[in-house]
Design a protein that fits this description.
Layout lengths: L9 E7 L8 H11 L1 E10 L8 H8 L3 E5 L8 H16 L4 E5 L6 H9 L3 E6 L5 H6 L2 E4 L26 E5 L4 E4 L6 E4 L9 H13 L3 E4 L6 E9 L2 E7 L5 E4 L3 H5 L5 E3 L6 H17 L7 H11 L7 H10 L3 E3 L5 E3 L3
Parallel strand pairs: 1-2, 1-4, 2-3, 4-5, 5-6
Antiparallel strand pairs: 7-8, 7-14, 8-9, 9-13, 10-11, 11-12, 12-13, 15-16
Helix pairs in contact: 8-10
Length: 346
């Protein structure tokens, strides 16, 4: 006769999601079911462990795992490990489970495993091949995770076309300084890479902003480029401070209306089909002329010239002919009747 499920040992499975790949979730719970009934199933990690593009997003639903996302208040502190250890002790002394399974390759859990065993409760460990011997020996029994197949497909990142602030549709745009971006016509928000601030901030300041994002001290909106929760960072603008949302994963920045112009007053947003104005056309003609004469930019015909202006220098469509006419009048280039372009060096 098969054993009745009522006689199975109640088991708590506590997973260090920052340390263990979600690809192992199947092995973890197949092993757990051989040890008992995994009535408690929890995973601990930083917030981005459970974002849509990370594997734990799918694993927690497939295996009924309760996510315990953590936010670090001070850089360098592993709050997820501490949260796991606290819950392990609570389960131990409340006797909520007859056995506890710690899933991690981290030696920091050696003391936790030893304490559980000393209290007369079975403690099982599941970790990688490089798990230190101290943690292995502290467990009643230890199981080694199998290798993950390199051919396993990685979760695809789906770029969102929806504004993370108001839900409007994001449209492609670019700035005067040749940075591609996306903007929301509904609320005026703007998504652009952190590199767009290089002309305004030093490398040290940009590194500090990125470090702030990696600490996840204050959670912002969802990154429209990779789906990861962004972090809020305060930036000084004169006597005022503004909060911008930074993504630690893909280094995108979300600016609410007018925030980008406040940080980079010398730059500005250009819509794809809006004239840049005479002042900008003068600036771009000077830059293109220098590139053509130095050989940095090369074109053979009129069609190639238009493509270069549109894709290489982000010249708005209404301004393309004006820029070409200016380059010809300044004797930077000559276009014959067949459309062949000749660069005039001087």
């Amino acid at each position: 006769m098969p054993q009745a499920e009522d006689n199975l040992t109640s088991l708590a499975v506590l997973i260090d999601a920052d340390n263990v790949s979600p690809a192992h979730a199947g092995f973890i719970f197949s092993t757990a079911r051989k040890l008992g009934d995994p009535i408690v199933r929890r995973a601990y990690g930083m917030v981005d462990c459970f974002s849509r593009e990370k594997g734990w997003w799918n694993a927690q639903r497939e295996f009924g795992i309760v996510a315990r996302p953590q936010v670090s208040n001070v850089s360098g502190k592993n709050v997820a490990d501490i949260a796991l250890a606290i819950d392990a002790m609570e389960l131990l002394y409340k006797k909520s489970s007859e056995a506890i399974c710690l899933v991690s390759s981290d030696s920091d859990f050696t003391a936790v495993a030893a304490k559980i065993r000393e209290e007369g409760c079975a403690v099982y460990g599941i970790g990688g091949e490089k798990t230190p011997i101290s943690f292995r020996q502290a467990c009643t029994q230890f199981f080694v995770l199998p290798g993950v197949r390199k051919s396993e497909p990685k979760p695809q990142v789906i770029r969102s076309e929806t504004c993370p602030r108001c839900g409007g549709k994001l449209v492609a745009a670019h700035t005067k300084s040749r940075h591609n971006c996306r903007t929301c016509p509904s609320c005026g928000g703007l998504s652009i890479k952190l590199a767009a601030l290089k002309s305004t901030f030093s490398e040290e300041s940009l590194s500090a902003l990125l470090a702030c994002a990696q600490r996840h001290e204050q959670i912002g909106c969802i990154c429209p480029d990779c789906g990861t929760p962004m972090s809020l960072a305060r930036v000084a603008v004169g006597k005022k401070t503004i909060e911008i949302d930074i993504c630690a994963k893909c280094r995108s920045v979300w600016y609410d209306k007018d925030e980008f112009n406040s940080l980079v007053p010398t730059d500005g947003l250009l819509q794809a089909n809006v004239s840049a104005g005479k002042a900008y056309r003068r600036e771009i003609v000077i830059a293109i002329a220098a590139d053509l004469r130095s050989g940095h930019a090369k074109v053979a015909d009129l069609g190639g010239m238009k493509t270069l202006l549109k894709r290489g220098y982000f010249v708005p469509t209404p301004d393309i002919q004006s820029v070409i006419s200016s380059l010809m009048s300044q004797k930077v280039l000559h276009i014959d009747k067949a459309g062949k372009v000749t660069i005039i060096k001087s």
